[in-house]
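Lecture notes, unit on protein representations.

Consider one protein chain, 51 amino acids long.
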Amino acid sequence: MEEIIYACKEHVEMALDDIVNDEEKAPVITKIQQEKKCGYCNEPAEYEVKA
């Protein structure tokens, strides 16, 4: 199953690390315009990080 993490600018590096550690493959990062919340701090997300 594909893991997706939404992250703000402050937490995007943490999301990248989590995807690499959990999925053991290179993450794909996409700048988003949707109204999503950061999975770490609940601020508006700017990025979607997925395996």
